[in-house]
Amino acid sequence: MTERSVSASKVTTGENVPFWKRLFAPGGFEWAFRMRKGDAQAFFAPQDSTGTLLKERNEILDHPSGRYLATTTAGEVLTDQVWDLALELGQVKESPDGKRDLLSLSRQWEADLVMMDISTKSVAAGSVCFPSSWDLAHVVGKTLDEVHEVVPKLNPQIGEMINRFVQSLSPGKSFCRENWSFTRTADLDYHPAVGRRRLDESLTLDEVFLRIEHQIFTGLPDGVLMGVRIETFPLKDLATDPDVWRMAYEKLQTMPEDVANYKSMDAAIPKILEVMEAYQPIAKNSRTFVAK
Ligand code: HEM
How confident is the model at residue 289 (pLDDT cuts 50, 70, 90)? Predict the structure, then answer.
């Protein structure tokens, strides 16, 4: 698979400014809720006019392991509701055979999809071609609390907010936010079974990529649809904005060890800080960054 990035920034910001310019807030590392109003029409609209992205997704969906797609009985009901949404947005066509399953939908739609059933508060279905180092098979059937349990300190810090948010999301309403991490390649598929090379003390600056996971949460009659798009940038790009460079440095410097371990970066952080400082010294007195 070739290294490249898939732009989601035009969709989520409406501008041609790279999204990393507004990703970080000042201060040390923390799990932040940072939810804002979302636009499902724009988020799910096709972004890759070449068709390369859909082609890659279709190849992944055909993987013999079947590890990129999973559903439960409740998930079939939710999938039908997601089909309604996708047709209403005018972004997919009914299958010629009338099938309304998750696979036929995912073959036409560019974003990854995860559905949560509101009555059980559990993940009921998913079609995730570009997971950020997690396995759909371990997630389907679990409650959100259980899914998030592997993320150090997330539940104690913002678990309540997450639960309140998903429970109060009305059908048709959308909100969005981002997760981020650093990886050793710009590859999109970071399924654990692919076994990508980890970031460790042997890295060079050219091997470090910022991976942004753009998420949208859209209310369904019986649950919540989480749409995900991945965008990657060379870490080096961030040096063009000294404030962002400094904030990225601060996030890494203050990342708790258990979080760094969860993000598969524990062996790499001192080296990343070293190569960042060597490439462009961290501005100590630059203006305070204001998130736009
Ligand atoms: C439908 C709702 C949601 C689903 C299905 C979901 C699913 C997931 C999954 C599968 C993971 C990866 C867990 C692993 O590593 O095994 C994850 C991580 C995470 N989730 Fe959620 N989530 C949902 C809602 C939220 C919300 C509303 C927030 C808001 C703060 C949130 C914040 C996070 C964070 C911060 C992580 C860790 C990401 C990282 O690696 O940095 N999630 N979630």
Answer: very low
Pocket residues: Cβ below 6 A from ligand 1: 31, 33, 114, 116, 123, 134, 139, 144, 147-148, 150-151, 154, 158, 162, 165-166, 177, 179, 181, 224, 226, 263
Q: What is the pLDDT of residues 20-44, one digit of tens each?
A: 999 999 999 999 999 999 999 999 9
Which residues are bridge partners to 153 per DSSP? none
Q: Alpha carbon 275 to chain centroid distance?
A: 26
In this prediction, residue 239 carries a pLDDT of 97
**Would the pTM count as exceeding 0.90?**
yes
pLDDT per residue over 152-162, tens digit each? Answer: 999 999 999 99
Contact 150, 101 (CB under 8 A): no
Q: Which residue do the tokens 């990225």 mark? A: 248
Residue predicted with more confidence, 289 or 34: 34
- The residue whose CA has the least distance to atom 21 of ligand 1 is 148
